[in-house]
Every structure is written in structure tokens, then in C-alpha cells.
Amino acid sequence: MSGCIPRDRTVRVRLFPLDSCDRIQTGDLAVLDWDGFETITITDQVDQGDRETIQTTSGTVCRDKVACSIDRGQQVAFNECAENWSMLSITGFGSLVFDGSDIVGFDREDLDCAAAVAVEILFELPGGCDTGGAQCLARLYPKVERFTISGDKAVNGKNAIRGTYTGQAVKNANVFGNFTTDTPDGELFYWAPYKTAVNTGDAFYYDRIVDCPTFDVDESCDLRDFSMTDAS
Asked: What was the pLDDT predicted at 133?
């Protein structure tokens, strides 16, 4: 399989809230595994470098040079189908309210600028190009932070209240830090062969072709526990 892969359909989208050390958490309420996005928009953040033009006193140009472009990585925007309290909470816009283990409400509070998530998107590969069984393209953003939220939230009998979340992708060498020997397992076991590259923290995102995993848990609009049982 070459890198010429259409990325027009997702198989799974998961967001993992990061702890204060930028690590994926394990255990309770550690992943939002939700098929509720109308669109996911990815925008490269590359600005043209400054241009320096120097003229002599006679008007002759003696230097005309453009500096290297400035690469700020990517912005990732999630346009939801309906408002989701869990999405609001993990992107820093407030707190979930619980009755025991049940989510019963949400408090919109001051923005938490420290909120960050790791994002994994599994893309569908063309069936005719698969070799050795069904395969997916897995894209991992080790850290997306500094979310803004936009979108009119009009209640008018035909439009649903929803928002668009836009975050900045940044490099992160600690994303697997809570796993034994920094080696992902459980629902992320198929990233283990690529841990060395991810743990160097040199990239804004990582694309890898993997055998499509299946999961023992269903998608949900609520945060759920991170499963340490291997997918297959």
C-alpha cells in the first residue's frame, strides 16, 4: 500500500484527555469514542517567512531574500452533529456533573487553557488495495491544545445546538508515558511497533497503515473507561 490514500471516510474517532504531563490516561472516563462529528477539518499552519530587501543609496537592490517559511503544525477542527457535554469538558470549557457514575449535567465554566487531548482517527482504506486482510490508516495526533469554540447555537425548530472546536496540534514525546516501558497496549496495542518514533516527539502527527482493530466497546457520546483489554 502506498501513501496515496483517500481520506474521505472514518472508521473510528477517539479523543484521549491528557494529564498534566501530557500522557494518555488509563482507567475511568479516559476516552471519548464518538461517531458524532459532521466534519473534521485539518489545516496546515505554514506562514511565509519575512522578506528582506536592501537597496543601496543609488537605488540598486543588493539583497532580496525570503526567509524560510514558519511551520506551526496543524489546526484540527471538529464540527459536531449535536452538542456533547463530554466534548465540552475535555476541551476545557467546563465540568461534567455526576449522579454516582451517571453524567446528569454540565457546568459551563471559565476556559481551562491547560486542557489537551490526544486524537486518533482511523480512516477506511479502499477495499481493492488491502493486502492480507482489512487495513486502516491510523493517524495519531499526540497533543491537540488551545481549543476555541465557534458556531451559532440557534434554537429555531430546525437546527440543532452544536459547535465547532478548533485546536492546535503540537509535538508531544510523553503521550505513551503512562504505559509500561512507554509501550501502548490495550486499545492502542497496534501502535506498539511505532513507539520509538512517537516517543521521540518529533512530529505533529503520525500516519501508519495497520490491520483494522475491532473493539469490545461501542461508541458513545459519553466519556468511558480506557480498556486495557487488547483489541484484535
From this structure: 54
Does residue 229 fall inside a structural domain?
Answer: no
Mean pLDDT, all residues of the chain: 89
What 3-state DSSP class applies to 67? Answer: coil
Domain coverage including residue 147: 10-45+66-217
Q: Is the Cα torsion angle 210, 214, 217, 221 positive or negative in sign?
A: positive
Residue 61 lies in a domain: no
Top-confidence residue, 2 or 126? 126
**Domain total for the chain?**
1
What's the pLDDT at 128? 47
Residues in Cβ contact with 202 at an 8 Å cutoff, skipping those fewer than 6 apart? 171
Long-range contacts of 109-115 (CB under 8 A, 24+ apart): 113/146, 114/20, 115/17, 115/90, 115/91, 115/145, 115/147
Q: What is the dihedral of CA 122, 218, 116, 168, to 10 degrees?
A: 30
Inside any domain, residue 20: yes
Instruction: Give CA–CA dist 13/140, Å, rounded.
Output: 10
How would you class 96 by CB atoms within 10 Å of its CB: exposed for 0-12, middle for 13-18, buried for 19 or more? middle
Q: Are 194 and 206 in contact (CB under 8 A)?
A: yes
Q: Which residue has the higher pLDDT, 36 or 6?
A: 36
- Written as nine digits, the cell of 53 is 530587501
Render pLDDT for 45-78 as a digit per residue (tens, 0 to 9): 888 888 888 898 888 988 888 888 888 899 999 9
For the cut 90, the answer to whether the pLDDT of residue 102 exceeds it is no
Distance CA(161)–CA(228), nearest Å, equals 34
